[in-house]
């Protein structure tokens, strides 16, 4: 049964044992499950329950409304529970910044936190009530909700505790909630506001695709302080990140993917360290999504010495085996050991050609190949050059360098420019 098509969708599954599971499906491929769980087939996660393909008796897509549980790459956006009151009081109750721009803190005392949480719980019978806790592996890191629906628009707000700020969780949550409110709930417009001085919130709103529509001088008064009030909007079907081109559609659902598309993908690189990094990361993505790898990129850089070629070539078996316990990596022995294997081969290439830059750019005569694609459907997944490159790299002892991987690598270091003709990022050449 092809269950991959249900990835990210809300489903109801009945298994062969008579159990029923409902929620947002997260598809897991056979290679991932074999590596992480020892399985030999693909499956679907619903919350923390894994149902293997052969255990599924029936599966159907359902449409949730209201405060449905929503999964992102790193977060579970779930409903409030009574026990959350104490956690929220501990994280937000004594934080002075909770008052700074609003003048109030719903978690200021334990009693207030309990009343706030219970009020959210009581509101869940209303399908136009939206209140979520941001949960990371069972740890509450923040809250997000949408309020005051007037038949046309709704206002969204969020908070992330200080010890979890700066990790992109607010942007990740807001991006997903904007999608859910507009596409799933059919709300035409979502609004938000922040103080001009609150640069953290402003960046989150902008990165999530919201547009600044109004600045009110002195529009916020908190005690004796006045702040300029910034108002943002997000309209269904008019996301400024997507309406100009479908080139970014694969990237806009994840902030790291968006950053990669806009500032790195198809940008010319002549830096040997970066070239080696992208060759290895593309290889790690074999059988997986690029989104998975880009979200593990920092863990890979930490584990493999920022892809220093000499250091990677000198890694011992003991060190590589120790990486099998690193949850930030794809814990596949062949993939982990391939980094050393590729580094050894890369050193020989450098000895022969002077640099990786000279070797790889030699395939195109030192010039970038411009695809001039009008639609994503025209874009190839491999080419004559990527096939030649793959064949030669394998002869030189490299691993996970098939022709599809090498074509993606060519995009990653700018050997080809596959930005669509109407993409505003296609003319940004150098990294």
Secondary structure: elements and pairs:
Blueprint lengths: L9 E6 L4 E9 L1 H8 L5 E4 L2 E4 L3 E6 L8 E2 L4 E3 L5 H9 L4 H4 L9 H13 L7 E7 L2 E9 L5 E8 L8 H16 L4 E7 L3 H9 L3 E12 L2 E11 L19 H9 L8 H13 L5 H6 L1 H7 L5 H5 L3 H6 L10 H21 L2 H6 L7 E2 L13 H12 L7 H10 L3 E2 L14
Parallel strand pairs: 10-11, 14-15
Antiparallel strand pairs: 1-2, 1-5, 2-3, 3-4, 6-7, 7-8, 8-9, 9-10, 11-13, 12-13
Helix pairs in contact: 2-4, 5-6, 8-13, 8-16, 15-16
In short:
With 431 residues, the chain is of the alpha+beta class. The protein has helices spanning 30-37, 84-92, 97-100, 110-122, 169-184, 199-207, 255-263, 272-284, 290-295, 297-303, 309-313, 317-322, 333-353, 356-361, 384-395, 403-412, and strands at 10-15, 20-28, 43-46, 49-52, 56-61, 70-71, 76-78, 130-136, 139-147, 153-160, 189-195, 211-222, 225-235, 369-370, 416-417. It is globular and about 70 Å long.
């Amino acid at each position: 049964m092809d269950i991959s098509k249900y990835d990210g969708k809300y489903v109801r599954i009945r298994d062969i044992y008579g159990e029923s599971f409902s929620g947002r499906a997260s598809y897991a491929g056979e290679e991932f499950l074999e590596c992480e769980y020892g399985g030999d087939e693909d499956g679907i996660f619903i919350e923390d329950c894994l149902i293997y393909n052969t255990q599924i008796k029936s599966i159907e897509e359902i449409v949730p409304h209201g405060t449905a549980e929503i999964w992102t790459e790193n977060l579970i956006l779930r409903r409030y529970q009574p026990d959350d009151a104490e956690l929220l009081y501990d994280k937000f109750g004594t934080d002075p910044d909770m008052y700074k721009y609003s003048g109030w803190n719903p978690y200021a005392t334990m009693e207030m936190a309990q009343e706030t949480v219970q009020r959210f719980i009581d509101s869940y019978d209303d399908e136009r009530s939206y209140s979520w806790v941001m949960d990371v592996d069972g740890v509450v890191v923040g809250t997000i909700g949408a309020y005051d629906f007037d038949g046309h628009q709704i206002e969204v707000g969020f908070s992330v505790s200080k010890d979890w700020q700066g990790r992109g969780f607010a942007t990740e949550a807001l991006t997903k909630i904007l999608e859910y409110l507009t596409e799933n709930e059919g709300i035409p417009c979502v609004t938000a506001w922040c103080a001009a001085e609150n640069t953290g919130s402003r960046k989150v709103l902008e990165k999530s695709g919201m547009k600044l529509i109004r600045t009110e001088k002195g529009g916020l008064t908190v005690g004796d302080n006045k702040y300029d009030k910034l108002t943002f909007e997000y309209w269904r079907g008019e996301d400024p990140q997507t309406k100009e081109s479908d080139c970014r559609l694969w990237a806009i659902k994840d902030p790291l993917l968006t950053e990669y598309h806009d500032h790195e993908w198809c940008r010319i690189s002549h830096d040997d360290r970066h070239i080696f990094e992208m060759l290895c990361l593309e290889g790690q993505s074999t059988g997986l999504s690029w989104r998975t790898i880009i979200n593990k990129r920092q863990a890979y850089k930490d584990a493999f010495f920022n892809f220093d070629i000499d250091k990677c070539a000198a890694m011992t078996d003991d060190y590589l085996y120790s990486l099998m316990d690193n949850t930030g990596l794809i814990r596949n022995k062949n993939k982990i050991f391939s980094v050393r294997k590729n580094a050894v081969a890369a050193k020989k290439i450098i000895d022969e050609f002077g640099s990786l830059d000279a070797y790889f750019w030699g395939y195109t005569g030192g010039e970038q190949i411009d695809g001039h694609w009008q639609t994503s459907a025209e874009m190839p997944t491999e080419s004559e050059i990527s096939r030649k490159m793959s064949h030669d790299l394998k002869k030189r002892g490299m691993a996970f360098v098939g022709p599809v991987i090498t074509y993606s690598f060519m995009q990653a270091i700018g050997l080809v420019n596959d930005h669509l003709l109407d993409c505003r990022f296609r003319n940004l050449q150098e990294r």
